[in-house]
Design goal:
The chain has 381 residues and is of the alpha/beta class. It has ten helices and 17 strands. Strand 9 and strand 10 (181-190) form a beta hairpin.
Length: 381
């Protein structure tokens, strides 16, 4: 039976980019994905590229590398990933102080510019001026996330990589067991997003990697035009991540909900005219937990409708996926102690920006090149 240098588990953008970079470096690579059309965080992402949001030397460097990477990525992958630049509009609620909100962004690499209500509505005419006290704006990159992942996969296959659609049941020291058989490799890297914790736990590997249940509404292409990517300036998601990981033991049993759900009301219109409207974040420790679709959609529509009234009743379909995260907002890129052949490449905040440069760095690191950034993102940090 063939033994690969690397098995990559997960076909979202993390696994797709990493598989491509490993194959390009010269390794024999097998990419395993559970679904022929993934229903993962990549599929339902807004597609935003927050180049401007670096707050440390490390994240600023990765953002700069990402800008350079994305400008040549369509050409390199031989596919249109719909890369563009647009205006990000960060809405400030009517009850919040615009100046204080703007000041909270001063530590970012490129602080967003504060707009009055009038200026915000001129930039985005679909806004409800009664719902805001102002807004922040900054230039923001954007891609079609699913097309980008598929472009990586096709380039990976052209580079000699192999792919199988199968569910990984167990991680082994020398490969993985799946629903269609056992595959052998010198190394396994887990890029399974919100399912990574459960998959590693089944192999007896405890890792402080978490996930939220994310909910959005997706529409068909429509004639109306949203000029900007709209999100709230005071994002609740990051606080939710901090609070939900205070007691790691709660995550070892399904059925727990460490903190209540939050809703960050926003929307993006893709280049084909369709909308992605979101988003609700729930902390449910069971990755297969069911939620009340009807109640969720009602809450989501009402909240987004307060900011963008024309979207409240726009026909669309509710979707749900898992999003992995780490409590300190840095990804885990690491070998597993006691399982030196098993690696993690997961838990990204700002994933679409930092995954391409980190995938390239990981592949070079695997080939023997020293890398201070990869070292800083290990389990031992």
């Amino acid at each position: 039976m063939k033994t690969y240098d690397w098995i990559v588990v997960g076909g979202g953008i993390a696994g797709a980019a990493l598989a491509y970079e490993l194959a390009k470096t010269g390794f024999s690579v097998l990419l395993l994905e559970q679904y022929s059309r993934p229903q993962n965080a990549t599929r339902y992402s807004y597609g935003g590229l927050a180049y401007w949001s670096g707050t440390t030397t490390l994240t600023r460097q990765l953002c700069e590398e990402a800008i350079a990477r994305y400008h040549i990525l369509s050409q390199e992958l031989e596919a249109d990933i719909e890369f563009r630049e647009l205006d990000l509009l960060l809405t400030i609620s009517a009850a919040s102080d615009p100046q204080a909100t703007a000041a909270s962004y001063n530590h970012f690499a490129i602080p967003p510019r504060l707009l009055s209500v009038q200026e915000a509505c001129e930039l985005e005419p679909l806004l409800n001026r009664e719902a805001i006290s102002g807004a922040l704006t900054v230039k923001h990159g954007h891609i079609h996330p699913e097309k980008t992942a598929q472009a990586y996969i096709q380039a990976f296959l052209r580079a000699g990589g192999e792919m199988q659609i199968t569910q990984v049941l167990q991680v082994l020291q020398n490969g993985v067991k799946t629903t269609t058989g056992t595959f052998h490799s010198a190394n396994v890297v887990i890029c399974a997003g919100g399912l990574s914790r459960q998959l590693l736990k089944s192999a007896g590997i405890p890792v402080k990697l978490y996930f939220t249940h994310e909910e959005i509404i997706e529409t068909s292409p429509v004639d109306m035009q949203l000029r900007t990517l709209v999100m709230p300036a005071n994002l609740q998601r990051f606080q939710l991540e901090v609070e939900s990981t205070q007691v790691d033991e709660l995550w070892n049993q399904p059925g727990n909900e460490p903190v209540p759900p939050i809703l960050d009301a926003g929307a993006i219109q893709m280049q084909d005219g369709s909308f992605r409207i979101g988003q609700i974040s729930r902390v449910l420790t069971d990755p297969h937990a069911k939620v009340d679709l009807e109640a969720s959609e009602k809450w989501l529509r009402k909240s987004v409708g307060e900011v963008l009234p024309v979207l409240e009743n726009l026909p669309g379909t509710w979707h749900h996926c898992l999003v992995a995260f780490i409590s300190d907002r840095l990804p885990l890129i690491s070998t597993i102690p006691g399982f030196e052949s098993v690696h993690l490449f997961s838990g990204f905040s700002n994933p679409l920006v930092i995954i391409p440069p980190l995938a390239k760095r990981f592949a070079d690191f695997a080939f023997g090149k020293e890398d201070e950034i990869i070292t800083q993102l290990s389990l031992h940090r």
